[in-house]
Amino acid sequence: MKIKNLTKVKLKLCLSLLGNILIAFIISLIIYFIIALFFESGLSVMVANLNYDLYAWIVYNRSIVLIIYITIILAVIIYRFISKYVNGVNEVYKALDLVLKEDDKIIKLPSEVSSFSDKLNGIKNDYIRSKNSEKEALQKKNDLIMYMAHDLKNPLTSIIGYLTLLNDEKNISKKTQNKYIKIALDKALRVEDLTNQFFDITRYNLREMPINKQEINLAYLLKQLVDEYYPVLEKKQLKCNLTVPDKLMYMGDGDKLARAFDNLLKNAINYSYSNTEIDIELKKVSKKIMITFKNKGAKIPQYKLDKIFEKFYRVDDSRASASGGAGLGLAITKEIIELHNGSIKVKNDDEFIEFIIEL
Predict the structure, then answer these.
(1) pLDDT tens string 53-80
(2) Was domain 214-358 assigned CATH 3.40.50.700?
(3) Vertex 325, ends 322 and 328: CA angle to 5°?
(4) What residue segments make up the domains of the chain, in order of their start?
(5) Which of 228, 225, 243 is nearest to 282 (CA)?
(6) Which fold has domain 134-206?
(7) pTM, whole model, 2 decimals?
(8) Do strands 214-217 and 249-252 pair parallel, antiparallel, or not at all (unpaired)?
(9) Are the C-beta atoms of 194 and 152 separated by less than 8 Å?
(10) Cα gap 282→338, rounded to integer Å
(11) Terminal C-alpha separation, the chain
(12) Per-residue pLDDT for 205 more than 50?
């Protein structure tokens, strides 16, 4: 596409040059014959009186005079055209500096190179959007790290406090000991979860996600995932309904897809109402594989739904939530699905939230 556009510009310049030359040639011939007519009717006498040798040379070398005249005219036209073109190129070079300026000024170029204006303005707008997105992502990341550092401090303080009590209190009852140990363990697991989220942030930003494809059974992968989450589902009083065929083979990265499905199920568990059901369905439609995760939870506003796959974005603005993640789970899930040349979208009808994957 870019080569075609450049070819069009070159063709336009060549046609412009040829057009100018043709017009100049016709006008110069008309002027030449007008001068020749005046020369025959009286101008020749004046030239002969001034310089007879010049008069004689003009009379006997009219074809040479015509060639010199046309050559001069064409040289002037080509020179002026090239000068305008060079000036236009210089304006393009100057405009390149404006591309990197983060302002709302529109780049305007001379008519000779006006076709580059839209392209440069497009590049400038893309650059500004990219810089703004980068700044926004960096700010979100910095805020998130600050929040997570604060969240790390709270469970660590509790762990230290309860372990100190266990260490200092010599006559503490077994029941109280078990209670303190259970609280300390829960807090330690929360610290582990937050630490893993820090690693996710680092991995997501430092390198692209590698992918290693092999034939896998998606049905078995989902069954295994649901089995692993049985204790968590029981604790949160949730039920998971899994609808899958006995076997559905797919060429993909099992570890990465397991991580993507894990993120979706974890998200459904965290944002489901108590005593509700999570529905997971796997089916083949024509040549496509469809996977859906559906749960019942608080309605998500459309403006939040539009950003749900952005990295570091969390639907729940309250960072006080014990289940609050780094805002990377769904972003990583989307990247994994797209690495498999698939797509993922989200729907939120009333209180039902549904993620639809197509592979």
Answers:
(1) 666 776 677 777 777 777 887 777 777 7
(2) no
(3) 175
(4) 2-113, 134-206, 214-358
(5) 243
(6) Helix Hairpins (1.10.287)
(7) 0.51
(8) antiparallel
(9) yes
(10) 18
(11) 29
(12) yes
